[in-house]
Structure formats: C-alpha cells, structure tokens
Design a protein that fits this description.
Layout (H helix, E strand, L loop, with lengths): L5 E5 L4 H12 L3 E6 L3 H8 L3 E4 L5 H15 L4 E4 L14 H29 L2 E6 L12 H21 L4 E8 L9 H5 L9 H12 L10 E4 L8
Parallel strand pairs: 1-2, 1-4, 2-3, 4-5, 5-6, 6-7
Helix pairs in contact: 1-7, 3-4, 4-5
C-alpha cells in the first residue's frame, strides 16, 4: 500500500517523540515508530502504522524499522530523530566512557538513522529530517554537559549535511526545546522563562510537523529554539 506521505519517528514512544508522531499522523502521514520501551510499537498500532521495539544505538534495530516501512509503504518522506537521556555529573568527574555515551545518545543517533534514510530520500527526489535537540546546545549549562557537547556537534553535522544533500532536495533542521512538560516541573525553572510556563510536548510536535511540511520547504540547516524565550543570545 503506497501512501502519499510517510514519516519515521525514532525514539517516538513517549514525550516529545510521541507528540511529534501524533502531530504527523494528524497531518496525514503514515508512520513508522521505533522506541526501546515498547510504547512506540503500541502507539504505531494505535495510529495504524508500523512499530518496532529497539534502540537508536543499534543499527540493526533501525534497519528493521526502515525495511518494514519500505515494505509496507514504499517510501520515506520524513525522519524525526528523538533521543534518550545521556550521562550527567560534575564536569571533570564524567568518565571517558560517559562522554562517549553522550555522543551515542545525542549525536550518533542522528548519524545512524540518516545514513539509512538519506539514500532512500535521494532516490525519491527529496525529504525532510528533523532532529530533536536542546535549547542548551548553544548556551551550555552544567546541568547537561554531555548533551551540550554532543548537540553542538550535531549543529555542525547538520550544516555539513545540508551543504552535501541540499542539491538532492533533502532538508535537515534541529528543534531546540527548553523546559518541556514531559520533564518534572520546578518553580525556579519556570520563573526563568519569559512566558512563565513550561512548554508542552505538543508544541514541540507542532514545530516538527511544520518543519516536515511544504510550508517549510525553504528552511534547512537551522536550529529553531522552542523555549519560551529562555535562551538569551541574539
């Protein structure tokens, strides 16, 4: 069965990834969802799509999803890359292994999935890749050291990818969420946000769906903050 539009959501079992999957479904996309918890597979079934339980740190798991989606729908128009949670800790107490784990969780998740999907998009004549990153990628905070390290690298990877693959009409953008309601709320964090509230996972999902749409056809290589005005740089 061929669909007009097909999206894959990696790490789409809960939180922002699941919200993105639901928003894309509402926009008319057929879905493939990967998550390690099994929730992504259940959500895919609920939305009439293809689900695989597996890890974005395992190429074979992601290949299984790509193959299942291609077998069912014959194309992939959108790839959404979510991430899990990497190591934290006092800056100089973080081990080499945990820095490398941060790259696995926050950077190589995108590289692996893009390797699998970009050639498919190239053959089709285009596609959109959206990575859920972090507002702290450019204003690093001690709270999230491995995330900030890896996601600033992801921003560089995104620029290079766009230089290489823009000619094939493949776009890549990063969404940079601030404090989102899928995290535990803390009053002092909320008070620091100009809009005086946490963002909603659905608001991240809506941003992802926009970046996937034809309305964003001339947007590529960008890092789009969805943080209620929290970050200060201009």
């Amino acid at each position: 069965m061929n669909q007009s539009k097909v999206a894959i959501v990696i790490a789409g079992g809960s939180g922002m990834g699941a919200a993105a999957a639901r928003q894309l479904h509402q926009a008319g996309y057929a879905l493939g969802i990967l998550s390690s918890s099994g929730k992504g597979e259940a959500l895919a079934q609920e939305l009439g799509g293809v689900g695989v339980t597996g890890s974005n740190q395992n190429v074979a798991d992601m290949q299984k999803l790509v193959d299942a989606v291609m077998a069912r729908y014959g194309r992939i128009d959108v790839l959404v890359n979510g991430a899990g949670h990497g190591p934290k800790g006092d800056l100089l107490s973080i081990s080499d292994e945990d820095w490398i784990k941060g790259l696995e969780v926050y950077f190589l998740n995108v590289v692996r999935a893009t390797r699998l999907v970009a050639p498919i998009m190239q053959k089709q004549g285009g596609g959109a890749i959206i990575n859920i990153s972090s507002a702290w990628a450019f204003e690093p905070a001690a709270l999230f050291p491995t995330s900030a390290m890896a996601r600033s690298g992801l921003a560089a990877f995104t620029k290079i990818f766009c230089d290489e693959y823009g000619q094939h009409n493949i776009r890549m953008n990063n969404v940079l969420p601030g404090w989102i309601d899928s995290l535990p709320k803390k009053d002092e964090r909320q008070a620091a946000v100009p809009l005086q509230r946490y963002g909603k996972a659905d608001e991240i999902g809506a941003t992802v769906a926009f970046l996937a749409s034809d309305g964003a056809a001339y947007i590529t290589g960008q890092n789009i903050r969805v943080d209620g005005g929290l970050m200060r740089h201009v």
